[in-house]
Amino acid sequence: MGETTKMTPAARRILDTASELFYSKGIHAVGVETIASEAGVTKKTLYDRFGSKDQLIVAYLEERDQKWRKHLFSCMDEVPDDQPMDKILRIFDALENWMSTRNKRGCAFVNALAELSEETHPGRKVIIEEKKWLKELFASLLRQLQLENPDPIAEQLFILHEGLMVTYSLDIYERGTAGAKETAHMLIQSADYKKEEA
């Protein structure tokens, strides 16, 4: 489809409508007829702009990824670059803000992955790459802290992040983000750090 910022007005309406319906009702529960009707276009226009429902799903996931990264970096940019520990903890704050404002049904990528059972579906690649990116973001910040082996800690932080997202959507935690940040801090503090050369 290309850059979502260069869409025609009709394509923009289609994607906005599909994004809302896919997230709130589920990908399989929403057909192209419903999307076209609610977007005020014909099915032909939808197919002309996106080619297929599968490609519309890809566009939905790609744009959601872009929005999440923009939100995350906006929150992280409030922390000076020379404070990687605080930047790591800010990721959890950004998640809480993201979930509390407009994303009550949990992670759109995990939800979509559960529905896209075919391993060859193009949407699965978008989801997997997004998760790999987040794990690598943790790893890159940990490397700034001079950890001996940051990858296992990055994986633990990633799992903690994903778990927080699930429990938030279920509304079953009491301390949530505060508890996750304390756990993240303990994981990092317990890690081995590189010894400074004499």
Automatic annotation (TrEMBL):
Organism per entry: Halobacillus kuroshimensis
Transcription listed as a keyword: yes
Name the record gives this protein: TetR/AcrR family transcriptional regulator
DNA-binding span(s): 31-50
PROSITE patterns linked: HTH_TETR_2
Pfam families: TetR_N (PF00440)
Lineage: Bacteria, Bacillati, Bacillota, Bacilli, Bacillales
Gene3D superfamilies: Tetracycline Repressor, domain 2 (1.10.357.10)
Ranges for domain HTH tetR-type: 8-68
Keywords on record: DNA-binding, Transcription, Transcription regulation
